Amino acid sequence: MKIKYKIKSKIENSKILLSTYFIYLSIKENFKFKIITYLKKNSKYLKDLILTKKNKEFKIKYLFPCINDNTKETPLAIDYFYQDTWAAKKIFELNPKEHYDVGSNAKTIGIISQFTKTYMVDIRPLPIKLKNLNFIKGDITTLPFKNNSIKSISSLCVIEHIGLGRYGDKLDELGSEKAIKEIIRVTSKKGNIFISVPVHNENTIYFNAHRAFTKEYILTKFHNCKLVEEKYIYNGKLQDKYRTKNRNYGTGLFWFTKN
Predict the structure, then answer these.
(1) For the chain, how far is it from start to end, CA to CA, in angstroms?
(2) Domain boundary among 44, 69, 94
(3) Residue 131 burial (CB count, 10 A)
(4) Chain-centre distance for alpha carbon 29
(5) Which of 16, 69, 97, 226 gets the most CB atoms within 10 Å of its CB?
(6) Cα–Cα dist 107/30, whole Å
């Protein structure tokens, strides 16, 4: 895992390698079938199948191959894991009567709803019902709430996507800024705001995936708020300090209260 992040860091320092890397990611996204890995996993599956056939309870019609679950490490999106557990811990400790979330991971919000009455806002309908979790269809750039009406709100790894068309939304070069403005508008005075965004040493667009921002830029957009806590995820580790050198790319976690 450490070697992987070292390689990624070197790639980010070269424009040519960086461009090549993103082309590779695009190809990989569309052609995930890896023949060598598949054959290795399939070979083990066939060996296990031959041994299992000796079991009297075995029936060929109930075959249920799960070849891709044979991995060396527990599959994990590290940035999401850190940011979601960080936000959930803060919300649990503050214990608001109600919590509102805009566009974050549904699984995480579902868990939060089990200890706090939660309202989930998204442009895409939630296809399930869960006690204590209420769905509200809405757009983060025009939230359906009154000014200063929400005491606890989160939006984790969402703001950076707004206005790039990735999720069917219209192109808007100020999409992220509009989203931030709306979150601040609906938050009550002394209300808590939890956000996470990709951070870089310069504002960048990775079209059409997401944007990345400098810490300073995020702070200027939340100028009428107080920064209570900041955390950063670099190379798979949760850290306290924002990096400005060597094109460091990471994820910033910010807890604000509205003045």
Answers:
(1) 41
(2) 69
(3) 8
(4) 18
(5) 226
(6) 26
> Does some domain include residue 30?
no
Contact between 154 and 91 (Cβ < 8 Å): yes
d(CA 36, CA 18): 26
- Which residue reads 């990709």 in tokens? 198
Q: Is residue 28 part of a domain?
A: no
CA distance 210 to 22: 13
Q: Which residue has the tokens 């679950």?
A: 69
CATH of the domain at 158: 3.40.50.150
- CA nearest 199: which of 176, 181, 179, 178? 176
Q: Which domain holds residue 119?
A: 78-258
* Cα Rg, the chain, nearest whole Å: 22
Residues 243 and 125 in one domain: yes
* Cα–Cα dist 20/168, whole Å: 26
Q: Which residues pair with 255 in a beta bridge?
A: 194, 229
Q: Which residue matches tokens 């442009």?
A: 123
Looking at 13-161, list the stretches that DSSP marks H as alpha helix, in order from N- to C-terminal side: 15-30, 35-52, 78-94, 106-112
Amino acid at 53: K
| pLDDT score at 86 | 98
User: Is there a domain that residue 13 lies in?
Assistant: no
**Both 86 and 62 in a single domain?**
no
Please give the pLDDT value at position 28.
60
For tokens 């709430």, the residue is 145
Low-confidence ranges of the chain (pLDDT < 70): 1-41, 246
Q: Are residue 118 and residue 214 in the same domain, yes or no? A: yes
Number of domains in the chain: 2
Beta strands, E only, 126-249: 133-137, 150-156, 187-199, 204-206, 210-212, 225-234, 237-239
- Helix, strand or coil, per DSSP, at residue 34: coil
Q: For residue 58, which amino acid is it?
A: F
